[in-house]
Design brief:
The chain has 449 residues and is an alpha/beta fold. The chain contains 13 helices and 20 strands. Strands 1, 2, 3, 4, 5, 15, 18, 19 and 20 form a 9-stranded mixed sheet that branches. It has a 6-stranded parallel sheet with strand order 9-10-11-12-13-14. Strand 9, helix 3 and strand 10 form a beta-alpha-beta unit.
Length: 449
């Protein structure tokens, strides 16, 4: 397959410029002005007026497959991902069964090879009983270890609350460990306080007070203190508070950082003022918090204190988001709306295009040491998305490609639109049409992380 993209406005490595891009099979062969048509078998796409960005690499998704496929599948969510400009994803282990053995891990890879339109990797889950097994993962073919979505034991705690176990883990691991950090004791005490006041019908606004700034800060601080003792490799998921950003300030270059962090789309868009309007639809853990926290995260991203942006895409059926505070599940679908939301923040003056690309592609590739991805470079895989920055549209449930069928972004007006998405040179999405003829590839990584 040969493809020549003409006159695209490329956003890459801190620059914006107009150029042609020539793709042969799955890689970028040449980037230059006025590339002549190589031969009659080469397809040509005129991208004049469109912006060409590296495809988003989302390092935190819950595609629910296997075992929870009534909510989502690798196939359905990877289709939604490419429709949103996400060309690669890394999936969490809280499936059924939990991905806590090498056998189950490889079964997910085998399934994705047949289902996923986007490139893929899967985290190995870590719990109280599988440390030896988890430490055996291959750094070059598995993105890392995580507890996200899992419980450490039957007491319903998450790993960040077990310092003795963290000592064992970080003193021995040579791979990237990504964790969800909230203090269970603080959350449980706050839950009791508001349950005593409201019963089971706690208004959703109080979710931000139950899972508050202190719960996030104290847990993240404790994990970092242990990580620093061993110079281990730690990545902090979904930072949601301004105060936490103080823990990640560093003068080191990204490739030299041993501790990295991310913010998520919902914490950059919604605030606690939206609970009255959207209720359970924006119930996430960690919680969506105040406007000041949102602005603090944006500032930290722009100042390179927080390193990347992810989605924490976690679909549930709409019926599972109903009920009282304790009945409604936390999480929601995001991959199809991530890029257009960030581009809306660009239009509002919060981010530059270069910063969006840096945080969703370049830096993700650097943090995970991805091989030949995350940049528009000659010799790299042809993973990119073409967007029209000025094609206004209104999102709707009918346009959602998530299996769950809904989105917290339903009925939102967006200024920009995804036009095409290429995965390894394959036109996976084209102006509303999905092409499932070719699947994505397994992501590969450098051994030393």
């Amino acid at each position: 397959m040969k493809l020549l993209i003409k006159d695209a406005t490329i956003v890459n490595e801190g620059n914006i410029y107009v150029s042609d891009v020539y793709i042969v099979n799955d890689r970028i062969e040449k980037i230059s002005n006025n590339i002549n048509l190589p031969d009659i078998n080469c397809k040509v796409f005129n991208a004049e007026g469109l912006y060409l960005l590296p495809g988003l690499i989302d390092d935190q998704v819950h595609f629910r497959d296997p075992g929870l496929t009534h909510k989502a599948t690798i196939q359905s969510e990877s289709i939604a991902a490419v429709a949103g400009g996400v060309t690669s994803f890394m999936d969490m282990p809280n499936t059924v069964p939990n991905t806590t053995t090498l056998k189950l891990l490889e079964e997910k890879y085998h399934s994705a090879k047949k289902q996923s339109l986007a490139n893929y990797s899967f985290f190995m889950g870590i719990t109280k009983n599988n440390l030896e097994e988890a430490l055996r993962i291959d750094n070059e073919t598995v993105c890392g270890l995580t507890d996200d979505g899992l419980y450490f034991n039957l007491d319903d705690g998450i790993l960040a609350n077990y310092p003795d176990y963290l000592e064992q883990l970080f003193s021995r691991t040579n791979t990237l460990v990504a964790l969800h950090c909230e203090d269970d004791n603080i959350v449980n005490n706050n839950t009791k306080l508001y349950k005593d006041k409201f019963g089971d019908d706690i208004p959703l606004y109080y979710h931000s007070l139950i899972r508050n700034e202190k719960a996030c800060f104290e847990a993240t601080k404790q994990v970092i203190e242990i990580v620093e003792k061993y110079n281990a490799r730690f990545h902090a998921y979904h930072i949601s508070t301004e105060i936490e950003t103080e823990l990640f300030k560093s003068n080191k270059l990204l490739r030299d950082k041993r501790i990295t962090s991310e913010a998520c789309i919902h914490h950059l868009w919604f605030t606690d003022k939206d609970y009255d309007r959207l209720g359970n639809l924006i119930k996430w853990n960690p919680s969506i918090k105040s406007e000041n926290n949102k602005l603090g995260l944006i500032k930290a991203l722009n100042n390179n204190v927080i390193d990347i942006i992810a989605t924490d895409h976690a679909p549930h059926l709409l019926s599972e988001k109903q009920g009282n505070y304790f009945q409604s599940k936390s999480g929601g679908p995001l991959v199809q709306h991530a890029l257009v939301t960030l581009l809306e923040l660009y239009h509002q003056g919060y981010f530059t295009l270069e910063k969006i690309v840096e945080k969703t592609s370049h830096h993700v590739a650097e943090i995970y040491r991805l091989i030949d991805r995350g940049y528009i470079r000659e010799g790299y895989y042809a993973d990119f998305v073409l967007v029209d920055l000025n094609d206004k549209w209104k999102s709707s449930p009918e346009a959602n490609l998530y299996k769950c069928g809904w989105s917290p972004f339903d009925n939102v007006f967006f200024t920009s639109k995804v036009i095409q998405t290429y995965v390894n040179g394959h036109l996976a999405y084209d102006r509303g049409t999905v092409n499932t003829v070719k699947m994505g590839k397994r992501l590969l990584f450098e051994k030393e992380r």
